[in-house]
Write a structure and sequence with these properties.
With about 350 residues, the protein is an alpha/beta fold. It has helices spanning about 15-25, 45-55, 70-80, 95-110, 170-175, 190-195, 225-230, 230-245, 255-275, 280-295, 300-305, 310-315, 320-335; strands at about 5-10, 30-40, 60-65, 85, 95, 120-125, 135, 145-150, 165-170, 200-215. Helix 9 runs antiparallel to helix 10 (about 280-295), helix 10 (about 280-295) packs across helix 11 (about 300-305) and helix 12 crosses helix 13 (about 320-335).
Length: about 350
């Protein structure tokens, strides 16, 4: 069994996938790099096959008809043989030395039969043209370098949530939770982090930057204009988060509070994007979003509508929109996203 399976979803990634893969290869034969060619039209498939031929003990090339980011992640999970599982998008990359140190940690877990459910590390928003790259660190919330339970975890500052870039899951946790990401849908990374979290009993935090999250291509899915065009996919993921996790069934109070905070920020992003568009159609979608939530998920509505952003977003007036957009713009400056 490999220590770590790394799935690299690739769609028309010929221009940048080599850099991603080269930063993973120093992990050696303790990892497997699953390059999932998601129906690419360019030279992606050939590059994947090339790496498999050059590094047969490390790299596996998997080809499938286009199924979207979620479909590629699920294909990787289906084929994974590693004890732990990580997703690295093909335009991102990792720090090779931190990768080696994380593998030492995973090896220790295996040797001592103390298999933590989730390993957390830092990541950086590697934004094109930004003079200062924002690093997402968690020391205020998570004690570092020891095995933890949720009772040991403190409060996360606003904006410092665990994203796909910051987590390595034990593979069996992903399988036991029934993770099933929708096909042909962007923004499923929220589901990838959120749903399995309900099965996490133990975690370990390494306070080092492992993941470089690239932002800057005009066609990138996280660009604001692109997100607005794909707002239906963002809303779909938001609804699936309501559907797939019953917060009242999460027994640990601190974990439940964290999941609610995470759900609040994803819901806020959905509504802010509708505000940013400003079209009558999108403003009506925002109004219906809250109405439908109250009808179909009354418990989620009750929890979210009582919180600050819920009260503001639910106010449905111009002042609320101005306040929300001001907070959003400030967050963009601080964290460097979009």
């Amino acid at each position: 069994m490999k220590l770590l399976s790394v799935t690299v979803p690739c769609y028309n990634s010929q221009e940048y996938m080599r850099h991603c893969i080269e930063t993973l290869l120093p992990g050696g034969e303790e990892i497997e790099i699953l390059i999932v060619d998601d129906g690419s039209k360019d030279n992606t498939a050939a590059i994947a096959d090339e790496y498999q031929e050059r590094y047969p003990a490390i790299v596996r090339a998997i080809h499938q008809e286009n199924a979207g980011h979620g479909g590629a992640v699920m294909k990787g999970l289906e084929n994974a043989t590693g004890l732990y599982f990580k997703v690295v998008d093909s335009d991102d990359w990792v720090d090779p030395q931190v990768l080696k140190d994380l593998l030492k940690l995973l090896r220790r877990f295996k040797q001592t039969n103390q298999l933590v459910d989730m390993v957390v590390s830092d990541f950086v928003y590697d934004k094109v043209g930004a003079r200062h790259k924002k690093v997402m660190r968690y020391p205020r919330a998570i004690p570092k370098d020891r095995v933890l339970h949720w009772e040991d975890v403190g409060n996360f500052p606003k904006g410092h949530y665990l994203l796909m870039h910051s987590v390595i899951y034990r593979t069996q946790v992903l399988r036991d939770c029934g993770l099933d990401l929708p096909l042909h849908t962007f923004y499923v990374d929220n589901l990838f982090v959120y749903v399995p979290m309900t099965r996490v009993k133990t975690l370990y935090y390494v306070d080092r930057v492992f993941y470089h999250y690239f932002i800057g291509r005009e066609d990138q899915s996280v660009q604001e204009a692109v997100m607005i065009r794909r707002i239906n996919q963002q809303l779909k993921v938001n609804w699936l988060m309501f559907q797939q996790v019953d917060l009242d069934q999460v027994e640990n109070q601190r974990l439940r509070r964290y999941l609610l905070n995470y759900l609040e920020i994803v819901t806020t992003v959905s509504c802010v994007l509708l505000y940013r568009s400003g079209t009558p159609e999108h403003l009506e979608m925002e109004r219906r979003f809250w109405q439908d939530m109250e009808r179909d998920y009354p418990r989620h509505y009750a929890l979210l509508s009582r919180r600050m952003f819920g009260r503001v977003l639910g106010a449905q007036n111009a002042a609320a929109q101005r306040f929300t957009l001001a907070v959003y713009r400030l967050s963009q400056k601080i964290f460097g996203f979009n």
